[in-house]
Design goal:
The protein is α+β, with helices and mostly antiparallel strands. Among the domains are: 11-69, no CATH class; 88-186 and 199-230, no CATH class. The protein is 45% helix and 8% strand.
């Protein structure tokens, strides 16, 4: 599924579907408009049925299906796989050379040789070259032949992005560097003096061509060297074939990587959907547990309030009896007369005792303190109100009901063992 929610079809799947059902019906199935579907067909170069095609099909008329045209990459692979021939023609003169080959010829002609008598070129618009003057025209014609063998396939020679470094062949984002050089050979051979520098050599007089996807990389470059046994045309045909083969393999590899990336994306989306579903189930289960816990807590509080109210009523009655007993004792000992202090104490004591009575708080109220039907409470609330009486000082805290497990249950949790801190300093 893409960001819009419609199913992402491959080019072949879209072609089969667009010729199976009307475009409006297919657009509705994919969850997009028919205009967006038409734009997608145009982008992927998928032909659509012409006007009145489906009306003619409904009338029983046979209609011809327009075949799916090949993609540019498929056309490239099919064309590039054709052999350029066992040998390629080399121009006789330099008058009709490719513009880049002409520029290479001009630069090699105007540049001065270095210490090893070779002319070195490493410009952003040309390949890297290191040859003597005798091979300038031969190198320019060879570059011309290579360019003509690959340019019509869309493999162009591009300018380097920076100020330094040679140009390169490119199709898409893949680069391929070409180097034309004349190797140095040992002029002494086996008669080299022991103190002679190993780098001392003379130009070989033959061309060496090499291609490498990376200018400074770990990949091994491919080389072709004139050996005098085969013509230069055959050597250039092998180079052109190798450049084509490189981009054919690159295109196939990228297509396989695209398929693999799509598989990984589909797998990722599937796992993400599973994760979302599991997360939704988990959250729903948590909400269910919270709902059940809130109902249990309400029932537990109401039961505990009943016990609290009963205990407060007992304390109230005990206090009232005690106050009455105090008054009787004072009256019997003082001829039924009370002092001002005793009357004040009795008034204070009766007010404090009265505050202990649960009836002063309006308890019990059947709508707030009685039983309730859990099934009538909406999922997620609102829940029945709770009074939550203050706990009498003589009443211990009542533990909540213990949930029974499938295999093991316990009425009371095991007490947590305290760490014996005396053991920390034991033995010092």
């Amino acid at each position: 599924m893409n960001s819009n929610g419609d199913k992402e079809l491959t080019r072949e799947e879209l072609y089969e579907k667009i010729w199976s059902v009307p475009i409006t019906q297919l657009a509705a199935e994919l969850g997009i408009s028919d205009v967006a579907l038409a734009k997608r067909c145009k982008k992927l170069n998928v032909p659509k049925p012409p006007l009145r095609y489906w009306a003619k099909v409904a009338a029983g008329m046979k209609q011809k299906k327009v075949p799916l045209p090949p993609t540019p990459n498929e056309v490239f692979i099919k064309t590039a796989e054709k052999s350029p021939g066992k040998t390629l023609p080399i121009p006789q003169t330099t008058e009709q050379l490719h513009s880049l080959a002409t520029e290479l010829l001009r630069r090699l002609t105007t540049e001065k040789p270095s210490w090893d008598k070779r002319i070195r070129i490493s410009e952003c618009t040309l390949p890297e070259v290191a040859i003597t003057k005798a091979l300038i025209e031969r190198a320019a014609k060879s570059f011309h032949t290579i360019l003509n063998g690959v340019e019509h396939l869309g493999i162009t020679f591009r300018k380097a992005q920076g100020s330094y470094g040679p140009g390169f062949f490119q199709r898409g984002r893949d680069r391929l560097y070409l180097e034309i050089k004349e190797d140095l050979v040992d002029r002494f051979g086996s008669r080299r003096p022991s103190l002679q520098w190993q780098t001392d050599g003379v130009p070989s007089g033959v061309l060496t061509f090499s291609i490498n996807p990376e200018r400074y990389g770990i990949q091994k470059e491919k080389q072709w060297k004139e050996d005098g046994k085969s013509s230069l045309g055959k050597l250039l045909a092998q180079i052109v074939t190798a450049i084509r083969r490189h981009y054919i393999e690159t295109q196939k590899r990228q297509a396989e990587e695209a398929i693999e990336r799509k598989k990984q994306r589909v797998e990722y989306e599937r796992r993400w959907r599973e994760h979302q579903e599991k997360e939704a189930i988990r959250l729903e289960e948590e909400r269910k547990q919270k709902h059940e816990g809130a109902l249990e807590a309400t029932a537990h509080v109401r039961s505990e309030d009943l016990l609290k109210a009963a205990e407060w009523w007992r304390l109230y009655q005990t206090a009232v009896e005690f106050i009455h007993e105090c008054e009787q004792r004072w009256r019997n000992s003082q001829a039924n007369e009370l002092t001002t202090e005793q009357e004040a104490w009795l008034l204070w004591a009766r007010e404090n005792a009265k505050a202990m009575s649960p009836f002063e708080l309006g308890y019990p109220d059947p709508t707030k303190d009685g039983p309730f039907d859990p099934s009538s409470v909406p999922f997620g609330g609102p829940y029945p109100c709770k009074r939550d009486f203050p706990r009498p000082p003589t009443m211990p805290k009542i533990p909540p009901p213990v949930q029974q497990n499938d295999h093991w249950s316990s009425s009371t949790p095991e007490p947590k063992q305290q760490y014996p801190f005396w053991l920390k300093h034991h033995g010092r």
